[in-house]
Amino acid sequence: MNKNRPFEYKKRNMNIWNEVAPRYHNRWASANVGPFQSTKRLVESVDVQKGDKVLDVACGTGVVTKVLTKKVGKSGFVVGADTSVTAIEIAKKWNDRLSNLLFVNVDAENFAFKEKFDVITCQYALFFFPNAIKALCNMRKSLTNSGKVGISVHGHKDRVPYFGNILDAVTEFIPDYIPPGSPSLDRYGTKKALKDEVKKAGFSKISVEDYVFTYSPGTFDDYWRNYIKYVAKPIKEKIGSLDKSQKKRLKEKIRDNTKPHTKRSGIIKFPWEVLILTAKY
Ligand SMILES: C[S@@+](CC[C@H](N)C(=O)[O-])C[C@H]1O[C@@H](n2cnc3c(N)ncnc32)[C@H](O)[C@@H]1O
Questions:
Q1: Ligand 1: does its nearest atom lie under 6 Å from the Cβ of 63?
Q2: Count: domains in the chain
Q3: C-beta 152 within 6 A of ligand 1
């Protein structure tokens, strides 16, 4: 693989997150719908105590951070870390201004804090790191000897049809829909794959819980319209470059894929698998 690829991928990913962060925050993260029911579960799974020092890696617009600050109280502190400047700006506005809450722009693969943390969380981001092992080793190094980590990821695309129904069809029409050199976003979408990666970083007492949430995007037309509306610009442009008949065929193919999840009323109800891993230093 070209050795600049991870760098190019990261740059592209940072641009994407700077662009989509406001839409992501409004539609998903702050709305607490579908997979975001995991925010509460993730925080519960690491059993945050008053006075704990917590790091939220790839904190995005700060939804997990917000729950964490309530748990640690005034005597603890929380650091939210993310590479997207726009996401961090939203996180600062959306969270209360507290002297024990800090947001920083850092790369999960390249951070070092003087402070050791009691708990580290990372929701829906591990699969974005091209060198996830490096990020996991960083997390471990930043924990106290009795520290805990909590990581949530989406399940494999076959168990997250919201993504899979579109991806399976779109990659037939646009083979480079996912740019070459991008890490596969569902490579940790099974309990085993996730556990094995975390084990390689030296963590112990690893356990993975599997949750299936429900998400209804409305009718098929709502699903497709909102997908196009909320997706990142480069992806929107690729779909926009198809001619009229290709677009029509693509849409029909996706419609077919959604049929097993479409109720008689025409409303789609997708299952959405989420894996939550906890481990100790
Ligand atoms: C799906 S969002 C999740 C955000 C947040 N944890 C949440 O649950 O809403 C993924 C986040 O990962 C961040 N991210 C991607 N690569 C990163 C990296 N190498 N280091 C730090 N953050 C990264 C993105 O900027 C984005 O905010």
A1: yes
A2: 1
A3: no
